[in-house]
Amino acid sequence: KSRGDAINAAAAGGEYSYVLNKDGSRINYTDSLISSIQNERVTDTLRQLSIKNTWNMKYNENRLLISYNADITDSIGNISKIDRYDVAYSPDSDGRNINSTKFLLEYKEMITDSYGTITTRGWSASRDNYDSTGKVLVYHEVMKDAIGDVIYTSDSSDIKYEDDNMKSYHQVTNDIYGNRSILDWEASYNSFSLLSKTSSKETQINRDGSTSYSANDTAYSYDDDGNLQSAVGNGSFKGEDEFFNE
After folding, report:
1. Which residues contact 224 (CB under 8 A, 6 or more apart)?
2. Chain segment 181-232, per-residue pLDDT in tens
3. Rg over CA atoms, the chain
C-alpha cells in the first residue's frame, strides 16, 4: 500500500501516466491533464503529413491551456518551432467541464521557421465573435519581426464553416508601408473532408496609387484512400498604375 501511494503521488507530479497510440504517438499526463505529446501525426486539408511534438503544456486554475512549446517536422523534413504564451479565455470558459465550450480571446506565438527566422504573432477575438457552437467568426492578427516591429496587421471576418472545416472568409491585411490587400476565399470539401476546390479573389491597393486584381481557382483530386494525386489551378491577373494605365 505504501509503495502504491508513493507511485500515485509521483504520477500526480510527473509524466508517469501516459497513453501509447497505434500510430506511434504518446500522450503524457500530469495531474490528469495532458502535459506533453510526442510524435503526433498532423494532416492538413490536403492529407499532407507532419509530425508534431508538444511539451511544457501549462494550465490556469480553470484547467485551460495557457502555454506550450512545440516543433513541427513537415513532409519533406523542414522543422519549425512554435512557442505559444499569454493565452486568455472568456470568463465563461471552463476546462473543468468537458462539455463546456472554450472561447479563446487572445494568444501570442513566437515562430521560428526552418531557416531560423523568428516572427511573433498576436491573435485576438472578442466573446461576441463566436457563434453558438463555439466557432470563431471574426479575429484580428498582428505579425511582428524578431525585434518587435510590426510587419502587418490582418482582420478576418464573415467566416463560414462546413461542419468543422472553414468554407469561406473575408480578410483585409495592411502592411507597415501602407499597402492593403483585400482577399475573399472560399472552398469546398469531399467526403473525406479534404479540399476539393479553392477559389480566391484578391485586390491589392498600394501606397503609390497602383492597384492589382487576381483571381485563382484550384481543383484537387485524390485516390481511394484519400491521398492527394493532383492539383490543377488557373488564374488571372490585372494591374493598374496610379494613372490607371493597365
Report:
1. none
2. 999 999 999 988 889 999 999 999 999 999 999 999 999 999 888 888 999 9
3. 22
DSSP state letter for 63: S
H-type helices in the chain, by residue range? 2-13
d(CA 111, CA 100): 30
Helices and strands counted in the chain (H then E): 1, 15
Give me 114's grid cell.
526552418
Answer with the residue of higher pLDDT: 75 or 145: 145
How far is residue 142's CA from residue 173's CA, in Å, rounded to a whole number? 10
Main-chain dihedrals φ then ψ at residue 6, nearest 5 degrees: -65, -40
As a whole number, the mean pLDDT across the chain is 91
State how far the Cα of 94 lies from the Cα of 114, in Å rounded to an integer.
Answer: 36
Q: Which three cell numbers stand for residue 63?
A: 484547467
Reported as a single tens digit per residue, the pLDDT across 142-182 is: 999 999 999 999 999 999 999 889 999 999 999 999 999 99
Q: Is 89 helix (H, G, I), strand (E, B) or coil?
A: strand
For residue 211, the cross-strand partners are 205, 240
